[in-house]
Amino acid sequence: MPTAWIDHARRLGAESLAFLLAADCPGCSLPGSLLCPDCAQALAARTVQRTTPGGVRVCAAHEFDGVVARCIRRVKEDGQTLLAPALGVTLRVALPQFGDEALFVPVPTSRAAFRRRGYRVPELLLRAAGRTPCRMLVSTGPRTDQRGLGRAERARNVRGSMRVRHPLLRPAGAGSSVVIVDDVVTTGATIDEAARVLRHAGFRVLGAVALAVTPSRSEHGVNG
Length: 224
Ligand SMILES: [Zn+2]
What we know:
Helix content is 36%, strand content 18%. The chain contains 8 helices and 7 strands. The protein has a 5-stranded mixed β-sheet with strand order 1-2-7-6-3, with helices on both faces. A two-stranded antiparallel ribbon has the order 4-5. Residues 25, 27-28, 30, 36, 38-39 line the site of zinc ion.
């Protein structure tokens, strides 16, 4: 094995260890734990069904609440991608809801968010769930943060925020079945916009899967 590679692996191991020692459980703040066993149990998935205002069926693994919400915030806002595998596997309960034939299309991450984080959260989760993302949608520029916006404002904010990648190069793709993937679904505005542009390009949208949906009482989550 090349020495450089071994050095790299050692450094990575040391960094991970240092990270773990500095970490605390997102669920209960237990020190020295990336995710304690009790909180890992709280991540047991159940399916939550929702329908967006535009009529797209959303199947999620969790409600956006408690331990799950705190774990997602760590991944999205604190860069703690080591939590993604634990979250992603729970997404598996939602995946078979739409059959086996569909392509999984993540909602696009804005360039600004990708620059800030260095990764795309829906893709990270989908890969952790064992599926390959089909990056069919691209962000078309900056859009205002969805946080703090109400239902109508969110719908206006996402309008025109994404497009289908090279639709003209994919005439054979038209008619393919797709399932939209997001990390957190709040009002469903982002899912509805993704469904609109995909349908416009000729795809058949079966529905959407998400790691979590906000409880119906709340409109102010971390996403659209
Ligand atoms: Zn804990």
